[in-house]
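1st attempt posting a full record on here, be nice pls
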Amino acid sequence: MGALKVIRKMEELAMNAWPSLQTKFYDGWVLRFADGYTRRANSVCPIYESTIPVDEKIDFCEKEYGLRNLPTLFKLTTESNPEGIDARLEERGYVRENEAALRILNLGQYVPHESQGVVVESQFSNEWLDGFFRCSNIADEKTQLSAKEILDNILGPVICVTKQVEGKVVGCGYGAVERDYIGIFDIVVDKDYRGNSYGKDIMNGILGTALQKNIKTAYLQVAVGNIPAEKLYNGIGFKEAYRYWYRKLEKQK
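the predicted structure (as tokens):
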């Protein structure tokens, strides 16, 4: 499968696994809005063919995000449409930031490991949500509401995992299932419990359950330079498929 097909497929899966609250399609571009919670749910994904001149389209996006008091943000890959959009955004004052890698694991090569203190659920329970907010240091009620709405918008099956120590949730994560794929998101461990391989326990809880459900492939996204996360995913066997990055308008009109 060529690079374009791989990127387009994985970007579609990832958008479904972490949905926005509102979506607008515009001449091959996907504009996503979620009250500002996370970059990927509040950015333009130019992944399909375009016909309208690029500057006209960028102007349109700036207006749409400005109406919502959000920064105009583009999520880009080497296959973004049209060709040369990254350079054009840079010329217009967009700053490149937050490079990340999408990584893939063939679950046929994954060796499951039993993890102690891991609870697996098929929905986002109040315990999972409370643990996620606390471990992620999300105390603002508005942000919590946006996060919950995003999670509620996931249309397919989910695998939700918490890591518990003496009855306390000290880490969590989830996997979103679509077709033969599972996208892994929000792997987080309480800052006071890091360095104990609890992230690996959470990953094993998700991947082991996915394997039981005959899911063929897992994928995730990790910030380039996040050494602890990269080490964890390297150890499990995730391989980089491609990179993406963001362009943010430095001075919004």
